[in-house]
Design brief:
mainly beta, OB fold (Dihydrolipoamide Acetyltransferase, E2P), five-stranded mixed barrel, 5 strands, about 55% strand, globular
């Protein structure tokens, strides 16, 4: 099974080797038929501490690294 890759914006880089990425998804509401935006924050492993707040990055699923980290930083846009 392929690993999921998500794209989002870095909202925090205060932790060492960790970034918090906000990923937004859009979907059509089943009853209202309107497009709804929902966002979720993911903790991602950033080995080199290269990502800064506001950067658009891609993250990929991985084995658990810590209690909250299940994603790794793949690339910066």
């Amino acid at each position: 099974m392929p690993k999921r890759i998500l794209q989002g914006t870095v909202v925090s880089d205060k932790n060492d080797k960790t970034v918090v990425v906000s990923v937004e998804r859009r979907f059509t509401h089943p009853i209202l038929k309107k497009t709804v935006r929902r966002s979720k924050n993911y903790h991602a492993h950033d080995e080199a501490n290269v990502a800064k707040v506001g950067d658009i990055v891609q993250i990929e699923e991985c084995a658990p690294i810590s209690r909250n980290k299940r994603w790794t930083l793949v690339s910066q846009a």
